[in-house]
């Protein structure tokens, strides 16, 4: 996109200095990166030009944009993120490096990621969590018990295992009691891990788009949802063209019940994990923190609405809203064959189960108290102790009238069944628990000992107690 998109997108502004301050090539921004991990166009031009004014009420469609990409070089990504209030009103009030969402971190399995977080939030403690990454939860790795006080900095360092799943992840603050406010106010960014998955025939070389979905936020009294900080951006496609979309629900509390008029969403990955084969769907429900990667083939020339459909029971109801506008135009392309077979991860349905546990989600919305197995979060109590190298089966029982997206740090799990119905094979780090339901998952505890958490990813619920501590021991 051109530098002159000023005034059309919301949230923070990108300056050349901010991008360069990470000490890396200033990369990214432009939507269509050619799909190949190494082939990101240098769009430094984007960060020049006039400041982006925080336009608020334009219903769009508005020009597409993506956050700048900070990419690892020679196995190292070394970034600085400053959490700070935004000086101008826009969508959100707090930002990393002045932008909503924050810059996208891109690296590869086996890389080292150094992330220096500076807290200039004035009166708020904060910290950092790398959601979905299979890294150590201890020390200065993904340790959410570590807090960063106002005016202080903390140096995180993550060793990404060489066999880490490539895919779409994200980062956000994890300060209990203030998590909802900080994420809702704009503190969130995407993480993209490149790797072998990108080389599968039918995926390799596809133009790629990242959708960081956020909201609702109140703008001039109106509630808006945004994609990469933009209300209702325009997505351009050619008839027959296949694009790869990375969808990330970075909202604190909202669901995105996604559907594209006249088009099928061909899902290839859930959270950061490849599916064994393409799943062609009309609709994908993404609870808070969930990700989906989909292939979309442009239909006939025309304008189509990418929307979130009406969702939720009486206590959580969200009416339908527009997410983006897809314009299919230009000379038609012969549709490329979609990949049939993707990657089969280990199937846990036959493995030995070391322990079965029941984890019960309950709520008292009046109090309000949100509990797991009757307890609210206490950082000084270990609720669950598991043995490294074992696989456990957890029955996640939601006794309440609200849906709760269950999430566990560090490990991914296989979803076995929902209310007794066997589920298509998928690994996830977040799974939605429908009202009054039972969801069975199997979790292999691999590679890392230490304390971390599992919780409801509706951050309002998490802040009201719906989080537990787990410790993996030798
Ligand atoms: Cu997305 Cu406990 O985190
Ligand atoms: Cu997480
Ligand atoms: Cu919940």
Q: Would you mind describing this structure in some detail?
A:
The chain has helices at residues 16-20, 179-184, 459-463; strands at 27-28, 68-71, 76-90, 92-96, 102-107, 112-119, 129-131, 153-159, 167-172, 189-193, 208-219, 222-227, 234-237, 242-249, 256-260, 265-270, 273-281, 284-286, 291-297, 302-308, 321-328, 355-364, 369-372, 384-387, 391-398, 404-408, 413-418, 421-422, 427-428, 430-433, 437-444, 450-456, 467-473. The protein is mostly beta strands. The strands form six sheets. Strands 22, 23, 25, 27, 28, 29 and 31 form a seven-stranded mixed β-sheet that branches. A six-stranded mixed β-sheet has the order 1-2-5-10-9-7, with no helix packed on it. A six-stranded mixed β-sheet has the order 12-11-14-19-16-17, with no helix packed on it. The longest helix is centred in the middle third of the chain and has 6 residues, at 179-184. The chain is globular and about 60 Å long. Residues 1-57 have low confidence and may be disordered. One copper (II) ion (CU) binds at residues 129, 131, 407, 409.
